[in-house]
Amino acid sequence: MFASATAAGAASFGIRDLVSPWSMHDLAPQKDSVSETSRPQLSDTKLESLIQAPSRIASQWLATVQERLQTSIVPKNCESENDGRWLTEDVAASASTFFEMTSDVLPSEPSIYSSQNGDLVAEFDSNHGTMTGIIAKDFVVLFAVVDGVPVERRLVLGSYGPRSLRRELQHLTEMLRTGRHGAVETAG
Amino acid sequence: MALWKPQGSQPIGPNEHLGRRLFDEPSLAGAQDQKTIARLNLRHFEERRDGQVSLDRLGRTNVDKSVVRYLRPRADRAGSRFRPPKAFNGWAVLTARKFGSPPAPAPASYALTVIASPESGTDLDENTYHAHISMPPNMECYSMALHLRQLFEAHGTIERVAKHAAPPPPENRFPRLLLTRFRKWLIERRSR
What we know:
The complex is a heterodimer. Chain A is α+β, with helices and mostly antiparallel strands. Helices cover 28% and strands 18% of the residues of chain A. Chain A has a domain at 62-178. Chain A has six helices and five strands, in the order H-H-H-H-H-E-E-E-E-E-H. In chain A, strand 3 (129-135) and strand 4 form a beta hairpin. In chain A, helix 4 runs antiparallel to helix 5. Chain B is built from four helices and six strands; from the N terminus they run ββαβαββαβα. In chain B, 28% of the residues lie in helices and 18% in strands. The chains are: A alpha+beta, B alpha+beta.
């Protein structure tokens, strides 16, 4: 009897569905699964380099914040009477991309509002201080206060690639997490 | 106590209390659900007009109530001139010496100078307690706003003002009239 049993048939657990691993359907072991046409697995459809490289896991708040940005884009007929309740499409898109690239290295879920100039202000909290990001169409200002000491960075988005941006943010987040701070300076 | 009246040429004393006006600021239309943060809104410290950040001189050594009484109607009027109007909630207050001594290791260029600049005019256009900080040439407007907010949050206080009482809503007399009529009808019915 045991000589004909397959590993999949005998196992009490296994990976059923790589696309949605949390689905609760069809928990009973399948019969004769070896003879079925196998579905393409994740490793068949992804490049080897992509599988081996560490992947970014977006923060849980990313979708919520992007939704808030999306629903704050100024309606067509309200552009002239924007008193701070709306963002332009450019600024919202720039902010959405910024959060998408960096949500995993930011210290917390941001609290967002519009600056007087119409750029996005994002406030973050951390153990050793606070950080404020001002995200405009083509630049980002980061201002962290680490244990009472201000640290400022100004990054021009065109000249800063995603990696440099993430590196700068990681540096600031690390300071906010550990309490070490650098001198006040601006970059860009 | 007599109202303290600074002379135009009188330099700002190191213990003078200076206030930045705080008005109601709007939230983003799509972010009404987010938690409110216990920080001063950066919008209070942004100045879009002429690179000069306006302040009110609130007292020589503390916040002088008589000066506050003088300034309140002016601040309320300034709020009513926004489109849409904004309620005036009070001041973020800081002593003058804190502007000139930024925390280490901030560079010396972060030291700010407060200049007395009384505004002449009639009635509420006049403000003898007006002062301003000129934005240093090496500082960009967001850096200035962020730096100012940091100073007020770290070393300042908030001087709140009582909100003006809202006018009572117009009384709806219809329910009371209905009740009176019903009572009258009930009494008449019993007496029959």
